[in-house]
Amino acid sequence: MSVRVDLPQWPWQPVRVQARERGVSVWPVGGVVRDALLGRPLHDWDFAVERDAVGLARAVADAIGGAFFPLDEARDTARVVLRDGEGQQLELDFAGLRGPNLIADLKGRDFTLNAMAVGPEGELIDPLG
């Protein structure tokens, strides 16, 4: 059975646009996936990025007017902080894959609920069930 995860267009679409322009794959992962499945508000977004996560974060911040913060450039990790249309603060964290591919990255995460991602068509990717 295939599960679909409905994410709001903003900020997900601008992230996808910037990733496409940079030629990299990006996946929402972890708590944002869990919260979307449970119908909770989404304030903290984590993204797994195939490569150059810091560069993607900087491009996203520039495109949507957020503040860019490099968290750990050696580990290819950065954050974008911004406000949504209702004034709520959002944090978008971008991290390079920890492993050769998305599945390896997900399997290496600390909790099973963090080992979920959303694919390009909104499909749930849950290698650990």
Describe the structure.
The chain is α+β, with helices and mostly antiparallel strands. The chain contains four helices and seven strands. The chain has helices at about 10-20, 30-40, 55-65, 100-105; strands spanning about 25-30, 45-50, 65-70, 75-85, 90-95, 115-120, 125. Strands 1-2-5-4-3 form a five-stranded mixed beta sheet. The chain has a two-stranded antiparallel sheet with strand order 6-7. Strand 3 (about 65-70) and strand 4 form a beta hairpin. The protein is globular, with a radius of gyration of 14 Å. It starts with 8 loop residues before the first helix and ends with a strand.
Main-sheet strand order equals: 1-2-5-4-3
Head-to-tail CA distance between termini = 12 Å
Number of strands: 7
Supply the number of helical segments.
4
Beta-strand percent range: 25-35%
For the CA atoms, what is the radius of gyration? 14 Å
What is the succession of H and E elements?
HEHEHEEEHEE
What's the story with the biggest beta sheet? 5 strands, mixed
Low-confidence parts: none
Mean pLDDT: 93
Q: What class, by secondary structure content?
A: alpha+beta
List the defining traits of the structure above.
single chain; 129 residues; alpha+beta; 5-stranded mixed sheet; two-stranded antiparallel sheet; 7 strands; globular
